[in-house]
TrEMBL record:
The keyword Thylakoid does not apply. It is found in: Golgi apparatus. Residues 541-669 form the Trs120/TRAPPC9 first Ig-like domain. InterPro entries: Ig_TRAPPC9_Trs120_1st, TPR_TRAPPC9_Trs120, Trs120_TRAPPC9, Trs120_TRAPPC9_N. Keywords: Golgi apparatus. Residues 363-510 form the Trs120/TRAPPC9 TPR region domain. The lineage of its organism: Eukaryota, Metazoa, Chordata, Craniata, Vertebrata. Residues 187-260 form the Trs120/TRAPPC9 N-terminal domain. This is TPPC9 protein. Belongs to the NIBP family. GO terms for cellular component: trans-Golgi network.
Length: 706
């Protein structure tokens, strides 16, 4: 049973040759991946004297049991092995070479060819010239790696082409072997091998296999012909598993023809060429591909050079974009009959979704994905579950199902911290949770929630915010807990029950005891910045009014001492209808003055929305324009208080125009700067007032009663 699905599979992978690159012995990870990156860059190769193109798919890990399905679909077969090893002394060489042979045996039956790259060995051993081993003095001195890989791919092509020719020529009289998948072998023991039914089954499976080989050898037209014949033969004998594979082959070849830009990348990332170009020509012009010419003349001249992938007749055998999806549906329904083919069925669903995403047929794509969700595989490890849900999420995102995508990403996040994992990955969990926010119409900026109507499902959003708090706590980051809890309290206050309000504030106080909330941005390791969350609803401020000084302290403007008669007449006509914006209301000057050095007052009307007494520790004014000493107040507002007057005071130390911009508070251990500009419903009589220099105070004392 094939156990490990490849969620990144796409239809065009059917035309690739699979090459595994692995280290032997102890190779530093960084060095291995440096070489692996260079090897995997040689992924596309032009066949000399023809329009054919070979595609290589590199993997650094491939489960051997998946390799056993290589007859069923040849792109699953490991045909090339490249091993990388560190070997510094000649005496280690025999053992290293022995390990190379053992590694080859692991994939033995399917390999066309293999190579060993040895780093660090110098001397006479390294000077021997061999085809299967390359020696390099170090990881920095290995210019010929790419050239070696090109030669290697040439040898793979020669083997592939000879196999294709061998299978494709119908030797009459020879018995065609029956190709099997691993779980069928026991079912065919003792079957009548001379019956017509059996022979048709053998022929149909072999045709399908030849179709696979043609597709890999860059002969799209031939592969379509073979797949069509295989479908007819296999349908006639109800060989459903292989019929499914033949139909999927047809789909893959047709996808490669219609979408030369590929279906695997981000949609629209690779520009597809015009449809009039042949698929091969389109592929040849893919940007950045390493092109290598292979000489098929090294083989017999048995018609290989004549390019059989001509345009003629292609359209006739190729499925239309609509038919591709119908045939995928049919193939998947056949796979579904076999519980051992779960991985094949799952991957076919994913491939179909990628095609539908390009066709912009989201609803149909979601049906395939829904099917993929319910396909039962063996007991998956936690890592595999994370991978599975992350890919489902990515595919839903691609077809525009943002909330569904967020749903699966959240499951993946929870899986990162599953109880069965010995060391839960809370960082990974937190990172994935952050990625789900847009899908649930959440952001981390409280300003997005101050614009009136609430978007999204509050109950789900609160759950998600609680999960972020929990993950932050498990990561050992109390400042992050405080920020997320503050955000929850500020933006979801209207949706919290009385009990939840108590619970959240108790939690918050327990965190702020260790780490008070501030107005600083918090920067996460990946560079994301979390903006501060000022508590503008604890308490809610309804109006701000600057008060005149007490009568005895008010300054009085003197008439001009020089006695000039200054005309107060003005040509402007007074109109009571003045269109003014809130901004103007803020900046309008007030018709009284404050005095430098005197205590000045601002009255706020506030109320407490909480079902319990609200203690505001440190409430004072925020001002600009004049040096101002704010004298903070502490207040205690009764539960659900209704409007309540609060007077904030301070002393202007210099003269000029002073603007009251807002107020600061400390509630539940969180310090907030609340700016009036961010408070939608606040009434004000103007926030700017003139501060005049300190005046002499005239005091009269008299013996008369006051």
């Amino acid at each position: 049973k094939m156990s490990v699905p490849d969620y990144m599979q796409c239809a065009e992978d059917h035309q690739t040759l699979l090459v595994v690159v692995q280290p032997i012995g102890i190779v530093p990870e960084e060095s291995f991946f440096r070489i692996y990156k260079r090897i995997s860059a040689v992924s596309q190769v032009n066949v000399r004297d023809s329009q054919r193109v070979l595609y290589i798919r590199y993997r650094h890990h491939y489960p051997p049991e998946n390799n056993e399905w290589g007859d069923f679909q040849t792109h699953r077969k490991v045909v090339g092995l490249i091993t990388i090893t560190d070997c510094s002394s000649a005496k280690d060489w025999p053992q290293t070479f022995e390990k190379f042979h053992l590694q080859k045996e692991m994939y033995g039956s399917t390999l066309y060819d293999s190579r060993l790259f040895v780093f660090g060995l110098q001397g006479e051993i390294a000077e021997q010239s061999r085809t299967d081993v390359a020696f390099y003095p170090s990881y920095d001195e290995c210019e010929t790696v790419e050239k070696r890989i090109e030669d290697f791919i040439e040898s793979l092509f020669i083997v592939l082409e000879s196999k294709r020719l061998d299978r494709a020529t119908d030797k009459s009289g020879d018995k065609i072997p029956l190709l099997c998948v691993p779980f069928e072998k026991k079912d065919f023991v003792g079957l009548d091998t001379d019956s017509r039914h059996y022979k048709k089954r053998c022929q149909g499976r072999m045709r399908k296999h030849v179709g696979d080989l043609c597709l890999q050898a860059g002969m799209l037209q031939d592969s379509l012909v073979h797949y069509h014949m295989a479908v007819e033969l296999l349908r006639s004998v109800n060989d459903f598993l292989w019929l499914g594979a033949a139909l999927e082959g047809l789909c893959s070849a047709s996808v490669i023809y219609h979408y030369p830009g590929g279906t695997g990348g981000k949609v629209g990332a690779r520009k597809a060429q015009g449809g009039s170009l042949s698929a091969e020509a389109g592929n040849r012009h893919r940007p950045g591909a390493q092109e290598v010419l292979i000489d098929p003349g090294a083989l017999t001249s048995n018609g290989i050079n004549a390019d059989t992938s001509a345009e003629i007749g292609r359209a006739k055998n190729c499925l239309s974009p609509e038919d591709i999806i119908e045939k995928y549906k049919e193939a998947i329904s056949y796979y579904g009959k076999y519980k051992n083919a779960g991985v094949i069925e799952l991957e076919a669903c994913v491939k179909a979704v990628r095609v539908l995403a390009i066709q912009k047929r989201s609803m149909e794509a979601s049906e395939f994905l829904q099917n993929a969700v319910y396909i039962n595989l063996r007991q998956l490890s936690e890592e595999e579950k994370i991978q599975r849900y992350s890919i489902l999420s990515e595919l839903y995102e691609r077809i525009g199902f943002h909330r569904k995508s967020a749903f699966f990403k959240r499951i993946a996040a929870m899986q990162c911290a599953a109880p069965s994992i010995p060391e839960p990955g809370w960082r990974a969990c937190y990172k994935l949770l952050l990625e789900t926010l847009p899908g649930y119409s959440l952001s981390l900026d409280p300003k997005d929630f101050s614009k009136g109507t609430h978007r999204g499902w509050a109950a789900v959003q609160m759950r998600l915010l609680h999960e972020l708090v929990y993950a932050s706590r498990r990561m050992g980051n109390p400042a992050l807990c405080v920020r997320h809890l503050s955000f929850l309290l500020q933006t979801m206050l209207d949706f919290l029950s009385d009990q939840e309000k108590k619970d959240v504030t108790q939690s918050l106080e327990s965190y702020t005891a260790k780490c008070p909330g501030t107005m600083e941005f918090i920067t996460l390791p990946d560079g994301l910045k979390l903006p501060p969350v000022p508590f503008t609803k604890l308490p809610i401020v309804r109006s701000v009014k600057l008060l005149n000084l007490p009568t005895s302290l008010r300054p009085h403007k003197m008439k001009s001492l020089l006695g000039q008669n200054v005309s107060t007449k003005s040509p402007f006509i007074y109109s009571p209808i003045i269109a003014h914006s809130r901004g103007e209301e803020r900046s309008k000057k007030i018709d009284f003055q404050w005095v430098q050095g005197d205590v000045c007052e601002v009255q706020l009307m506030v109320y407490n929305p909480m079902p319990f007494e609200l203690r505001v520790e440190n409430m004072g004014l925020l001002t600009t324009g004049v040096e101002f000493e704010s004298l903070p107040a502490a207040l205690s507002l009764p539960a659900e208080s209704g409007l309540y007057p609060v007077t904030l005071v301070g002393v202007p130390q210099t003269t000029g125009q002073i603007t009251v911009n807002g107020y600061h508070t400390s509630v539940f251990g969180v310090f907030s700067d609340c700016l009036l500009d961010n408070l939608p419903g606040v009434k004000t009589n103007g926030c700017a007032v003139e501060v005049i220099p300190a005046l002499p105070r005239l005091q009269i004392s008299t013996s008369l009663p006051r």
